[in-house]
């Protein structure tokens, strides 16, 4: 077993306990990427670094009248700059640029919704990762995600999204987007450290007149391992529809919450019925004579 | 840059105007972020568009393109009227007290000495008054009506906030906020920097816009100090090296200049460039011009260059006129130039008025292309459909394509905007048949030389006598060339007591060792010190910063003399004390100048002797009054772009001579192609995007994915009027042609009220063409006019007239 797998704390559709012998090295609330929208210039270097590190190449598409390119997240575009123009009450303009991608929720809706055992895992450090070899392409993770992040590939019908460069992080490196960011708008470290850094940035923004500057680390999903510093933390929707109070979809919650015992009961019932059926109607067996008759019919 | 990238972190106020650093220089922009985060700096962006830099600015002010002199002139007036001037600085370090020639005059937009027919000025009245000893006459009280201060004040008196609003379209409150922030740096403990780029240079008044910015900085005492300066962010990786090495048609390496046709006499040529001091005890460093010039011609022609033949001055071409690119395409167009070596340049894409370039290139007999990539220029003859609709059969130009290596496939050095020469090492071999530019040029030279030697020819000697001391004459190495640029001693050099300070054959330690008697050789005096007897200084990689203000003197090497902030003597008061001890660059320690930077001054000249910090000027101070240095006048004046949306100059309404730059060069055929506002009612302006680099990165898949298809930006107000929706295909036309592109409809471009008229800008990114892996597009320069700045001939890409229609 790979040593990283020993740091997995949750697996989709799995009832057996996670490995728990190893002393977890995770401290400070796990890892976190902090994206400071007030320092981001929308240069898309993070998009390129992501494509390069992960060997992804989206198609050369079209301009649909905005700076966002490709036009949306895809199985080949795991992170995307989204540009929003906002006219303030005083008539001044703001161009709010947000790097979109997986938020790595502490309570991941995708993982909860996933019916394929081990297709989605959460590492002890908080990274939520998709294991495509277990993915059945059902798309439940898409429904389960409050941020509309996972995408199902047209090629292999499997789900893809940012994995916070788990391969880099597990050997002590920062994600590719963080390493490449020219202005330091994306930083990476323990979640506690990132919150502290965010507090300094927020103080700076407040001193510049952004009274509602704040940290985006929404409770509804248990907090996230990708956080934003926003000039307008009271209105995250301004940033290309960042949800104000994201929660896991009611259906998923129902499915994995109160409905789960019912589902389990249903499964147990199905198994019992099946057993009873077996006992009552044994399988029809084929005799050698039957085989011979069939052979003759075919040749005849 | 007078300063350098890292130094931006020391600024308290950063003005980005005539540039878009976040967009075009995202890596260098980190120092703006640093200044904001850790120096509590305020960032101001002034631009026609709310751009990527504006998205992280503290203050954004809109401006109509091409009106920057009005805006900055307004700032000058504000600073003077509100007494926000660094008085000690301007009193001691500028020419404000100098008395100007009594015939100097400025009347209704035109300076004294104008000849309308030749579009030239007789500049004899554009000078200081000198006494009988040849020294300037001054009035320290600044009351003399013809002193520079009084003339300056009078000149900018009309640049009121109301005038700024009327001409630039900048709302008065926004303009005043900008003024207040800039003015806050007039105290010695605050520093402000200006970052600009091609948004200032690419106008018919570009050089004068930059001068106006420099004048603002002088009034505030922001030149020569940490966190200050006039900082040109260069547009290409190695365009700084290009200008340093004199690859302009009128320059020699190190900003030495080619003689004009009238300068047949060597001594006269030198004397005009080596001015005597205009005040007592001034250094007037260009007095050393002959040392630099002689060392250069020794590098070029070796032992053939001797004192008795004036170091082969006769071998240098004498210019009858400037041969900039606009002139060159004009000559091709007239059939007077019929061969062209096009090296690392894509003029069909990069020069104005594509139709004219097609016509010009079509008249050539041959064209040699040296480039790592396929360029539009190399395929100008190919019909690419609507975007290059030529008749190939009609074009007889023979095109040779010589593939070259790119920067990562060769050793060498690049000079960044901050004048740092940073050595780099080859990372890969060039692909296929590609060779380095050096090898191609050297091989070509060997063939030409052999032909001259075998067959003779007119004036063969400059070619046959060229010094070529390289181990492999067909492929000089980067090391050999770098050492030659630095220079070495040809004989033992002695000091004035007869001690040998440099043995024959040794590398020079700096340009101070260069001699005018033929005993030194050096290909570029400014680079002397880059490869000394101690080795390659450009390859140094020690990032230690002992004072914490970003002065990493052991990281690479900066010209001149490894100095990181030019004019740094001006960071100290006249007694040699730093104006701001918290970010001291140099100081007088009682016996010499020393500190965190290499002093830009005579090392042992005690303060108090009156020597000025601007040692390259014979007066030792900085000039508000440019004397004869500029084509269109000693004080920057607003002139409209040649394609003006108004049709008149709102400052000089009744004088049509002063509508556009009266001293800009105009070719008749270009003039005939200017459009008028009736037919082309909108203002076009071209620019770059972060996602692409010029016309190169459209060959790169990653860049093409993140910005795939050509677009233009149209303000929401105008788009509504024209019924254009997000993503619609539109046709943008000028009097020279049209392009088709997607519409990005945006609130970031707003209509401006200019002198009672609503003026709209159309933003035109430049990066598409008919080769590459992006979606195919049109060359943006199909639209632009072929007219340049009055001094540099940089084309007016930033202001021209267009029409827009939905396709």
End-to-end gap of chain A: 56 Å
Biggest interface found: A-B, 41 and 46 residues
Which term fits the overall shape of chain A?
A: elongated
Mean pLDDT over the full residue set of chain A: 91
The percent range for helix content of chain A is 25-40%
Biggest beta sheet attributes of chain B: 6 strands, mixed, barrel
E-strand count of chain B: 33
Topology pattern of chain A, helix = H, strand = E: EEHEEHEEHEEHHEHEEHHH
The stretches of 5 or more residues of chain B where confidence is low (pLDDT under 50) are: none
Structural class of chain B: alpha/beta
Q: Would you tell me the structural class of the helices and strands of chain A?
A: alpha+beta
Strand content of chain B: 15-25%
Order of the strands making up the biggest sheet of chain B: 26-32-27-29-28-33
Tell me what portion of residues of chain A adopts beta-strand conformation. Answer: 15-25%
- Helical region count of chain B? 21
Fraction of helical residues of chain B? 10-25%
Q: Mean of residue pLDDT of chain B? A: 97
- Biggest beta sheet summary of chain A: 4 strands, mixed
| Rg of chain A | 24 Å
Layout of secondary structure:
The complex is a heterodimer of chains A (300) and B (807).
Chain A (H helix, E strand, L loop, with lengths): L7 E4 L19 E6 L8 H9 L25 E9 L5 E9 L7 H5 L6 E4 L4 E3 L9 H5 L6 E2 L6 E2 L5 H4 L6 H5 L5 E5 H17 L6 E3 L9 E5 L19 H7 L2 H22 L7 H12 L1
Chain B lengths: L12 E5 L3 H4 L5 H10 L2 E6 L11 E4 L5 H14 L5 H7 L12 E2 L2 E2 L2 E2 L4 E2 L26 H8 L5 H8 L3 H12 L8 E5 L1 H4 L4 H14 L10 E3 L6 H6 L6 E2 L3 E2 L8 H8 L15 H13 L23 H9 L5 E5 L3 H4 L3 H9 L3 E6 L26 E6 L8 E4 L4 E5 L12 H19 L5 H4 L13 H9 L1 E2 L3 E2 L5 E3 L17 E2 L9 E2 L2 E2 L20 E2 L27 E3 L4 E3 L72 H5 L9 E6 L13 H6 L4 E5 H6 L7 E6 L2 E10 L5 E3 L2 E3 L1 E5 L34 E7 L1
Parallel strand pairs in B: 1-2, 1-8, 2-3, 8-9, 12-13, 13-14, 26-32, 27-29
Antiparallel strand pairs in B: 4-5, 6-7, 10-11, 15-16, 16-23, 17-20, 18-19, 21-22, 24-25, 26-33, 27-32, 28-29, 28-33, 30-31
Helix pairs in contact in B: 3-6, 3-7, 3-9, 13-15
């Amino acid at each position: 077993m790979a040593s990283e797998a020993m740091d997995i704390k949750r697996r989709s559709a799995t009832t057996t306990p996670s490995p728990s012998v190893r002393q977890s090295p995770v401290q400070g609330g796990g890892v976190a990427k902090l994206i400071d929208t007030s320092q981001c210039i929308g240069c898309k270097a993070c998009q390129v670094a992501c494509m390069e590190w992960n060997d992804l190449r989206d198609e050369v598409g079209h301009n649909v009248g905005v700076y966002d390119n490709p036009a949306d997240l895809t199985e080949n575009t795991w992170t995307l700059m989204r540009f929003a123009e906002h006219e303030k009450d005083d008539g001044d303009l703001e161009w709010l640029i947000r790097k979109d991608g997986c938020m790595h929720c502490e309570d991941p809706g995708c993982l909860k919704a996933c019916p394929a055992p081990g297709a989605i895992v959460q590492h002890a450090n908080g990274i939520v990762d998709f294991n495509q070899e277990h993915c059945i392409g059902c798309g439940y993770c898409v429904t389960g995600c409050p941020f509309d992040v996972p995408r199902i590939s047209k090629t292999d019908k499997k789900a893809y999204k940012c994995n916070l460069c788990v391969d880099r992080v597990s050997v002590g490196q920062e994600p590719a987007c963080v390493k490449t960011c020219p202005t330091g708008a994306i930083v990476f470290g323990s979640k506690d450290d990132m919150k502290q850094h965010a507090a300094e940035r927020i103080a700076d923004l407040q001193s510049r007149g952004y009274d509602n500057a704040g940290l985006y680390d929404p409770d509804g999903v248990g907090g996230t391992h990708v956080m934003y510093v926003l000039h307008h933390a009271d209105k995250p929707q301004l940033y290309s529809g960042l949800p104000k109070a994201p929660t896991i979809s009611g259906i998923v919650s129902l499915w994995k919450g109160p409905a789960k015992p019912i589902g389990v009961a249903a499964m147990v019932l199905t198994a019992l019925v099946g057993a009873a059926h077996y006992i009552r109607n044994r399988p029809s067996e084929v005799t050698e004579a039957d085989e011979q008759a069939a052979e003759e019919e075919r040749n005849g | 840059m007078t300063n350098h990238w890292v130094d931006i972190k020391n600024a308290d106020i950063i003005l980005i105007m005539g540039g878009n650093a976040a967009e075009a220089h995202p890596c260098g922009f980190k120092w703006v972020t640093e200044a904001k985060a850790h120096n509590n700096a305020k960032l101001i962006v002034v631009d026609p568009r709310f751009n990527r830099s504006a998205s992280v600015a503290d203050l954004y002010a809109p401006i109509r393109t091409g009106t920057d002199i009005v805006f900055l002139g307004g700032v000058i007036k504000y600073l003077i009227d509100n007494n926000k001037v660094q008085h000690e600085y301007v009193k001691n370090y500028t020419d404000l007290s100098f008395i100007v020639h009594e015939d100097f005059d400025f009347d209704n937009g035109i300076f004294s000495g104008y000849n309308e027919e030749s579009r030239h000025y007789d500049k004899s009245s554009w000078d200081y008054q000198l006494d009988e000893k040849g020294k300037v006459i001054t009035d320290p009280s600044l009351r003399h009506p013809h002193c520079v201060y009084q003339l300056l004040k009078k000149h900018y008196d009309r640049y009121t906030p109301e005038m700024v609003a009327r001409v630039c379209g900048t709302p008065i409150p926004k303009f005043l906020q900008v003024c207040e922030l800039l003015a806050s740096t007039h105290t010695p403990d605050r520093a402000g920097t200006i970052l600009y780029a091609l948004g200032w240079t690419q106008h018919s008044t570009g050089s004068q816009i930059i001068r106006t910015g420099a004048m603002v900085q002088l009034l505030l005492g922001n030149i020569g100090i940490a966190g200050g300066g006039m900082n040109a962010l260069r547009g290409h990786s190695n365009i700084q090296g290009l200008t340093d090495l004199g690859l302009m048609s009128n320059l020699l390496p190190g900003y030495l200049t080619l003689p004009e046709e009238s300068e047949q006499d060597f001594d006269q040529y030198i004397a005009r460039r080596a001015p005597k001091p205009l005040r007592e005890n001034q250094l007037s460093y260009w007095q050393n011009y002959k040392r630099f010039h002689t060392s250069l011609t020794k590098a070029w022609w070796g032992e053939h260059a001797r004192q008795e033949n004036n170091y082969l001055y006769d071998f240098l071409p004498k210019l009858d006129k400037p041969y900039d690119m606009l002139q060159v395409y004009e000559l091709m167009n007239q059939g007077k130039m019929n061969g062209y070596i096009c090296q690392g340049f894509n003029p069909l894409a990069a020069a104005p008025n594509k139709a004219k370039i097609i016509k010009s290139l079509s008249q050539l007999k041959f064209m040699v292309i040296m480039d790592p990539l396929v360029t539009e220029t190399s395929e100008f003859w190919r019909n690419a459909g609507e975007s290059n609709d030529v008749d190939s059969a009609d074009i007889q130009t023979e095109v040779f394509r010589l593939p070259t290596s790119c920067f990562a496939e060769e050793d060498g050095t690049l000079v960044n905007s901050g004048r740092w020469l940073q050595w780099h090492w080859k990372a890969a071999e060039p692909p296929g048949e590609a060779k380095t530019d050096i090898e191609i040029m050297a091989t070509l030279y060997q063939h030409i030389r052999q032909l001259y030697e075998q067959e003779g020819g007119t004036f063969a000697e400059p070619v046959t006598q060229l010094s070529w001391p390289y181990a492999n004459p067909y492929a000089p190495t980067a090391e050999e060339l770098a050492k030659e640029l630095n220079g070495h001693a040809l004989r033992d050099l002695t000091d004035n007591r007869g001690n040998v300070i440099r043995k024959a054959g040794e590398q020079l330690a700096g340009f101070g060792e260069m001699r005018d008697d033929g005993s030194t050789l050096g290909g570029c005096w400014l680079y002397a010190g880059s490869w000394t007897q101690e080795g390659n200084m450009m390859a140094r990689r020690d990032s230690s910063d002992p004072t914490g203000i970003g002065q990493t003197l052991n990281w690479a090497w900066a010209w001149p003399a490894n100095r990181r902030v030019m004019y740094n003597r001006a960071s100290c008061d006249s007694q040699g004390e730093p104006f701001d001890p918290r970010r001291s660059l140099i100081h007088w320690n009682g016996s010499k100048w020393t500190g965190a930077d290499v002093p830009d001054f005579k090392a042992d000249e005690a303060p108090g002797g009156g020597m000025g910090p601007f040692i390259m000027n014979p007066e030792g101070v900085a000039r508000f009054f440019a004397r004869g240095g500029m084509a269109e006048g000693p004080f920057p004046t607003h002139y409209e772009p040649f394609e003006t949306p108004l049709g008149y100059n709102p400052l000089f309404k009744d004088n049509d001579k002063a509508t556009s730059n009266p001293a800009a060069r105009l070719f008749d055929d270009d003039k005939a192609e200017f459009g008028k506002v009736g037919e082309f009612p909108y203002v076009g302006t071209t620019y770059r995007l972060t996602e692409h680099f010029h016309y190169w990165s459209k060959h790169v898949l990653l860049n093409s994915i993140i910005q795939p298809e050509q677009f233009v930006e149209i303000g929401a107000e105008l788009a509504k009027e024209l019924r254009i929706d997000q993503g619609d295909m539109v046709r943008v036309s000028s009097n020279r042609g049209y392009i088709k592109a997607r519409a990005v409809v945006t609130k970031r471009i707003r209509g401006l009220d200019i002198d009672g008229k609503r003026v709209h800008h159309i933003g035109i990114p430049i990066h598409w063409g008919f080769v590459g892996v992006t979606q195919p597009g049109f060359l943006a320069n199909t639209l632009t006019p072929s007219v340049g700045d009055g001094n540099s001939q940089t084309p007016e890409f930033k202001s021209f007239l267009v029409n827009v229609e939905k396709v």
